């Protein structure tokens, strides 16, 4: 596996061809560990996701916000949130690990199922290793 957080973004997520934009943020402080170029999720958006994993009612009502974009919440579990933009068919997948959130979006040619698979596999790997 990669040796730096930026390598996880590039090698594992972006280079898969299934993830358009991606990021890894700390759960406790909402700080960015790494992200693809130009994909900036605000600390308020990260905090909203962290709270959403504990109580998804706001995500169902207000949607999932990432990098200034709004996605309709279509799935919420203890370690997984999935959202979709109805107009374009773009979407997002967020996986909660022990210490971080792995965030991926799919746009255009990127396949939703591929994005889901890549983000959840990385999330499960990190979670298994206590990260």
Q: Can you describe what's shown?
A:
The chain is an alpha+beta fold. The chain is built from 4 helices and 7 strands. The protein has helices at 5-13, 43-54, 57-62, 112-128, and strands at 21-26, 32-35, 64-66, 69-76, 80-84, 91-96, 100-106. A 7-stranded antiparallel β-sheet has the order 2-1-7-6-5-4-3, sandwiched between helices. Strand 1 and strand 2 (32-35) form a beta hairpin. The longest helix has 17 residues, at 112-128. It is globular and about 40 Å long. The mean pLDDT is 94.
The strand order across the widest sheet is: 2-1-7-6-5-4-3
| Low-confidence runs | none
Q: State the helical fraction.
A: 25-40%
Query: Describe the biggest sheet?
Result: 7 strands, antiparallel
Share in β-strands: 25-35%
Distance between the termini: 14 Å
Number of DSSP strand runs = 7
Global morphology = globular
Number of helices: 4
Question: In sequence order, what are the helices and strands, one letter per element?
Answer: HEEHHEEEEEH
Structural class computed from helices and strand pairing: alpha+beta
Mean pLDDT: 94
Q: How big is the Rg?
A: 13 Å
